TrEMBL record:
Residues 430-449 have a biased composition (Basic and acidic residues). CDD domains: KH_I_FMR1_FXR_rpt2, Tudor_Agenet_FMRP-like_rpt2. Keywords: RNA-binding. InterPro entries: FMR1 (IPR040148), KH_dom_type_1 (IPR004088), KH_dom_type_1_sf (IPR036612). This is Fragile X mental retardation syndrome. It comes from Echinococcus granulosus (Hydatid tapeworm). The keyword RNA-binding applies. GO terms for biological process: animal organ development; mRNA transport; positive regulation of long-term neuronal synaptic plasticity; positive regulation of translation; regulation of mRNA stability; regulation of translation at presynapse, modulating synaptic transmission.
Length: 581
């Protein structure tokens, strides 16, 4: 695992060798490694914490070197062997010294007396030390103290067995180090490893998880490691799941590629450029449906040529997928007299047809686009199966409309009129319009009278037929050579009743035709005689004339806004008669 703690190893002469702690053995035993490998020197050295110290804080120096002056206590970089042979190169080390003189980029230093030799560094040879050095080989003396066992802090990550491989990857370790701090060491817990005192009771042989010991020298780094412990495991699980899916897809792809291509059935078809969007569907819905068909291996669209390539294990699967993707536009000629009934009011009928068969749209083309006389082209857009179903339905509706028109053509207008006027239909319901017309005719006949014996109004006209009978002709009836044909038997009975009532009231009708301008000799009596006049009141005896029955006549309007107290006025035969109410 690519992680380490930068430190400096103190030699037997007080010099400091830069390097890293790369492994943990016990709380009092660590593995130190130099920054570079040198021949004749071991790669890894087991050292005590008391032989190590932290490196100095990096100070950015300008091109002229560190700011030092005469008399300063510094450390000088040395590494040249005493025999000046290349094969005897020594690891770089910092030696304590004092500046005695400085000129430009050079300085004269005096090395301090070396201390007592250490057991760990006793085998290191002493390099050749020169008193004249460059300024770039000088740094300020390191003020860090030597480390102890208590300066090292620990934390354990419990990693599931299936995630150990991911946890050991350098990219994941570097991600954790960046989140926590640069000075961290990850070590997998082993049987020969002596754990710190706080983890002495930890079960190392637990099979479901693998333990990793985190070593650091900063309390902040330890706190961050404890905080992200659960997040690290969750992140590894998600990554493991994604990698598993990728590997499964790769395996399936290899299986597909390993099968011979002649065992699959492939179909290619093109779609018009303006219909490619319909074939793809909203968010690729149609392509997903085609790929989900059982037996389909792949569905590929070439957007440049608008061509679909469908590959499947069976011919049926390829055809089913093709039905979902192959969109087209086809036209059909519909007779012009049936277009309105097929479309329906507010396009309800045609919209129901679109929804039923699953078409994308139906376009009824304009009159200037008509190519067949007396026909209107319908343009269907959708899948081939939907277009076929739509044509079948349109043909079915057209055939039914033709048959209905042929049946209606067999009924003559005279037979239709007799059927609706009451003859041949014993149980025919009464027409509300005829009832209102007859009632209006009766009411008008009572109020309007001509000397010729012919009552006229919008509703009824009496006439003398060839057989001498008086008949009534209404709006819905007609006058024939043999008599009057009534629209309703009830209306005829009402007419006869009104005639008898007039005879009882002794209201004779003129027999001389319609040329007389004089009113009748006696006034018409209403259903009840007028009350007898009181002796103390003088009443002007006058003729009583019928009020105008038509609302558009000269009489006062009985409805809202009419003047009831106004004296009625009527013109009969050019004579104006005014009556008092």
């Amino acid at each position: 695992m690519n992680c380490s703690i930068p430190v400096e190893l103190i030699g037997s002469f007080g010099e400091a060798y830069p390097g890293y702690i790369v492994d943990y053995k016990a709380p009092d035993s660590f593995v130190f490694r130099f920054v570079e490998e040198f021949p004749g020197f071991p790669g890894d050295i087991t050292v005590l914490p008391a032989c190590l110290r932290k490196p100095p804080i990096c100070v950015v120096c300008d091109a002229k070197g560190p700011d030092v002056s005469v008399g300063d206590c510094v450390e000088v970089l040395a590494g040249k062997s005493a025999t000046n042979e290349l094969n005897e190169a020594l690891p770089p080390s910092w030696w304590p010294a004092r500046i005695t003189k400085r000129r430009g980029d050079f300085a004269i230093v005096e090395f301090c007396a070396c201390g007592e030799a250490s057991e760990v560094s006793r085998a290191f040879p002493k390099p050749h030390l020169e008193n004249v050095v460059e300024i770039n080989q000088i740094r300020h003396r390191n003020s860090e103290q030597l480390l102890s066992e208590s300066d090292f802090l620990y934390h354990i990550f419990n990693v599931p067995q299936e995630l150990v491989g991911l946890f050991k990857e350098a990219s994941n370790i570097e991600h954790i180090v960046r989140a926590c701090g640069q000075s961290m060491l990850f070590c997998q817990v082993r049987e020969d490893m002596k754990l710190p005192l706080q983890f002495s009771n930890t079960n190392i042989s637990e099979g479901s998880v693998t333990k990793f010991l985190v070593v650091c020298t900063s309390p902040e780094t330890k706190l961050k490691a404890e905080t992200i412990d659960n997040d690290v495991i969750r992140m590894l699980r998600q990554k493991h799941c994604i990698l598993h899916q990728i590997s499964e897809l790769s395996r399936r792809l290899k299986e597909v590629n390993s099968v011979k291509s002649d065992e699959f059935i492939c179909a290619e078809f093109s779609v018009e450029k303006d219909l490619v969007g319909h074939s793809i569907g909203a968010g690729g819905a149609n392509i997903r449906r085609a790929r989900s068909v059982d037996g389909i291996v792949s569905v590929i669209l070439n957007p440049d040529t608008c061509t679909f390539k469908v590959t499947g294990k069976t011919k049926e699967a390829v055809e089913n997928a093709k039905k979902l993707l192959e969109y087209a536009t086809e036209a059909m000629q519909v007779p012009q007299q049936y277009v309105a009934r097929i479309v329906g009011q507010k396009n309800h009928q045609i919209q129901a047809l679109v929804d039923r068969v699953g078409l994308a749209r139906i376009r009824v083309q304009a009159a200037n686009e008509v190519t067949v006389p007396n026909c209107v082209p319908f343009a269907f857009t959708g899948t081939r199966s939907a277009i076929s179903d739509a044509k079948i339905l349109i043909n079915f509706i057209t055939d039914n409309l033709k048959e209905i028109d042929q049946l209606q053509a067999k009924i003559t207008p005279h037979e239709c009129s007799r059927f609706y006027n009451g003859e041949g239909n014993r149980y025919k319901k009464r027409d509300p319009s005829s009832k209102s017309d007859s009632a209006k005719g009766e009411r008008t006949f009572r109020f309007h009278q001509m000397d010729s014996g012919q009552a006229t109004d919008n509703g009824m006209t009496t006439a003398t037929t060839f057989n001498g009978d008086a008949g009534g002709c209404f709006r819905s009836g007609r006058v024939t050579d043999t008599g009057t044909e009534h629209s309703d038997s009830t209306s005829y009975r009402n007419f006869r009743r009104s005639t008898h009532r007039r005879r009882r009231n002794q209201l004779p009708l003129s027999r001389g035709g319609g040329g007389s301008d004089e009113p009748s000799s006696q006034p018409r009596q209403e259903s009840l005689p007028p009350p007898a006049p009181r002796p103390e009141e003088s009443i002007l005896q006058s003729e009583t004339i019928p009020r105008l029955g038509s609302r558009h006549g000269g009489g006062g309007r009985r409805g809202k806004g009419g003047n009831r107290n106004q004296t009625p006025q009527a013109d009969i035969g050019g004579v104006s008669v005014i009556t008092e109410s």
